[in-house]
Amino acid sequence: MMRALLRSLMASGFLLLAAPALAAGEISVEELMEQAADLAGEEVTVEGELVGDYGFRDDGWMWTQLNGDVYVREPIREGGSPHGANTGIGIRMPSELAEGLDPPGRYRSRGPVILATGTWKYHDPERQGESFLGVESLVVVEPGRQLSEEADWRVIVSGALLISGAAATWFARRRE
Amino acid sequence: MLIRPVGDDFRVIAFYLGRIFLVIAAAGLLPLAWAAIAREWNPFGSFLLMIGLFAVLGVAGVRLATDESKLNWSHGMVVVALTWLIVPVIGAIPLLLSGHFGRPLDAFFDAVSGLTTTGLSLLADVDHLASSLNFWRHMLQFLGGQGIILAALSIFAGTGGITLYFGEARDERILPSVTSTARFIWAVSVVHLVFGVTALGLVGWLVLGFEIDRAAFHGLMIFFAGFDTGGFSPQSTSVGYYHSAIFEGFTSVLMVAGAMSFGLHYALWRGPRRAVFANLETRTILSTFGFTMALTLLGLAATDIFVSVAGLTRQGFFQILSAHTGTGFSTVPSVELAGWGGLAFGGMAIAMALGGMGSSTAGGVKSLRIGLTIKTVVNQIRQVLLPEHAVVGTAYHQSGRKHLTPNLIQSVMTISLLYVALYLLGAGMGLAYGIPLQAALFESVSASANVGLSVGVTDPSMPIPLELVYMLQMWAGRLEFVAVFSLLGFLYAWARGK
Questions:
Q1: Would you say B397 and B280 are in contact if contact means Cβ atoms under 8 Å apart?
Q2: Would the pLDDT of A5 be above 60?
Q3: Contacts of B40 in chain A (CB under 8 A)
Q4: Residues A95 and A59: beta-carbon distance below 8 Å
Q5: Which residue among B101, B240, B307 places its CB closest to the CB of A82?
Q6: Chain-chain contact of A65 with B101 (C-beta, under 8 angstroms)
Q7: Domain with A63 in it: what CATH number?
Q8: How far is B303 from B413, CA to CA, in rounded Å?
Q9: Alpha-carbon gap: B304 to the closest alpha carbon of chain A (Å)
Q10: A104 belongs to a structural domain
Q11: Residue contact A33–B124, C-beta within 8 A
Q12: What is the pLDDT of residue A21?
């Protein structure tokens, strides 16, 4: 109970801190992808979950993916229903900005939800045409967390029974 | 008169299907072990269930055994067609139980797409999918690209092997026996696997800064999907996820290797390497790649999407290589690909439709057929232009000097026309559901030629009839029609024969 309250307070605090970033033109990841060309070179703020890997490169940048889809709020592992593919963009930030971030979202883990502000690089000529958000500042809206998974024993037992049955039949035939 | 199949026919078919299912059950132990090591217990249970079903069906089929030498051409084709239908049905169980699909048909769609090395997907939230399920999806592409039957043939040798081998859309036997050919193909693949995973894994670890185990995971997944021209990827942003020209470079090498015929691999390994460039197929694919690349780059240059030559070249090259090899990787999102009109769209669509080489893991009409079609047309024109009694040469070079025969021309033209009809079928279906012509055509060609690039039509909200048509296209396109028509003929004879 206390932990949940603390989390809510932290989230509220982060949101308050994010107020200046919100002013920088907050849009959803989906809108950014739809207006990708129009927003080239613009400063934008997007909210989403960090997923995949944190690629800390030797040149001082960290690359990862920011998803802004329905699964950020309703993970499938927590009963969310499937609503199609992910909506994500590549993001790049200075390595020091990424230090201390919770692990990225994967199976059984929800990555941190951040509010990222930066310049939208659309087919950046300096990166031979890659598109990504060059993050300059970020605010953690929700920390990352582990998601639970309970094994379905009925499925495991059914599978084991089928394999046992097949093996028994196979060996019985060989004995004939 | 149509002869109705009798009990022995069904028993022979069941026997061979049973053997193949047992091989797939054994292959299923790999994702099962992966799930156990990763402690992913839900996928573990679903893999156990899948293996159990394959094992039960396999043992049941083998128990019906009669004399295995009775497998004839028709039986072999039916076995191949049914294998490519039943394996995805059971192989879809772990996907379905993952909770990442809205309806069972969608999970089946993904399994068909994986096995046929297409790469279109209805999977929701791939970015949070269990690693063992990702492994299974990509392994399906590996099994499908190599050929499930081929996998079985390299384990059990049988008198019916030759029928099964050709039924799976392979038109050349590299070594004297089918079993040794199958083993050679697997040897080529294993060598590529070792080098591919090592190279991609090292790039991921040393250049991209991934953790070492994650670098190896990405390397393995991209190898499976790249070498087998499948196009699935462990992240929703496909190869664009890696933001690395070096990674794209190694992936491109794998895509090219996958789109090359295994006969060409053999020639490059054992024979005089220069001779392969005299082959009609090699020359054709180099020409069509150059042509479609030029079209796409010109089309993109006419827009203001890319402001640098380096950007245009890198992005254009990767997308067109992915399309022509039938892989389906991309570094731009589908919403952007949908906006590529004019020449860029034309270049991509043509590249997808033409496909890779015969007897490779790629789909599409295939380069040798394109080359032979062009040669036939040129010969016809020359025949008209030359004096009446002039003799027009019919020779062409393809692993030695060969001649265009009327039978060969008929076969090439028939299959090529069937592909065109398949492309139009899906496009027509898409149009009927109100999808714009360009998008309907792009997606249809992508499904039929087992490419997997999408402009957003393939979506969980798509109409079920359209989904079924795409599945039919993937299945028929991968098997190059013959096995499919044999199955239909077999069923018709069963229903109407005497």
A1: yes
A2: no
A3: 107, 149
A4: no
A5: B101
A6: no
A7: 2.40.50.140
A8: 37
A9: 9
A10: yes
A11: no
A12: 47
- Pairing mode, if any, of strands B401-403 and B395-397? antiparallel
pLDDT tens digit string along B354-402?
999 988 888 999 999 999 999 999 999 998 998 888 888 888 888 788 8
Distance, in Å, from the CA atom of B15 to the CA atom of B345, rounded to the nearest integer, reads 47
Beta strands A109-110 and A145-146 are antiparallel
Cβ pair A119, A113 in contact under 8 A:
no
Return the pLDDT at A15: 46
Inspect the interface and report whether the beta carbons of B243 and A132 lie closer than 8 Å: yes
DSSP E strands, chain A: 43-56, 61-67, 88-94, 109-110, 113-124, 130-142, 145-146
Q: Assign residue B364 a region: left if phi > 0, alpha if psi is -120 to 50, beta otherwise?
A: left
- Per the structure, the count of domains in chain A is 1
Strands A113-124 vs A88-94: parallel, antiparallel or unpaired: unpaired
Q: Do the chains contact at A162 and B53, CB–CB below 8 Å?
A: yes
Contact B418, B484 (CB under 8 A): no
- pLDDT tens profile A119-151: 999 999 999 999 999 999 999 999 999 998 888
Chain A interface, mutation test: which of B19, B243, B337, most A Cβ atoms within 10 Å? B243
In a domain, A19, yes or no: yes
Q: Has residue A64 been placed in a domain?
A: yes
- A159 found inside a domain: no
Q: Show me where the domains of chain B are located.
A: 1-176, 274-354, 367-496
CB B354 within 8 A of CB B365: yes
Q: What does the block give as tokens for B158?
A: 């049988």
Running DSSP on this structure, what letter comes out for residue A106?
B
Domain B367-496: CATH architecture, name and number where available = Orthogonal Bundle (1.10)
CA dihedral B231, B237, B239, B241 (to 10 degrees): -150
Beta strands B395-397 and A145-146, pairing class: unpaired
Task: Kindly report the nearest CA distance between residue A115 and chain B, in angstroms.
Answer: 19
Q: Do B347 and B296 contact (CB within 8 A), yes or no?
A: yes
B312 vs A contacts (CB less than 8 Å): 129
d(CA A122, CA A39): 8
Q: Cβ of B125 and A149 within 8 Å?
A: no
Kindly list the residues from chain B whose CB atom is less than 8 angstroms away from the CB atom of residue A159: 45-52
Q: Find the domain containing A60 and state its range.
A: 2-151
Which residue type occupies B238? S
Residues of chain A with Cβ-Cβ distance to B102 below 8 Å are: 81-83
Are the C-beta atoms of residues B166 and B18 closer than 8 Å to each other?
no
Facing residue for B45 by CB, picked from A105, A129, A159: A159
Q: ipTM score here?
A: 0.90
Between chain A and chain B, the number of residue pairs with CB atoms below 8 A apart is 200
Nearest Cβ partner for B127 among A57, A86, A153: A86
Angle of CA points B66, B91, B235, to nearest 5°: 155
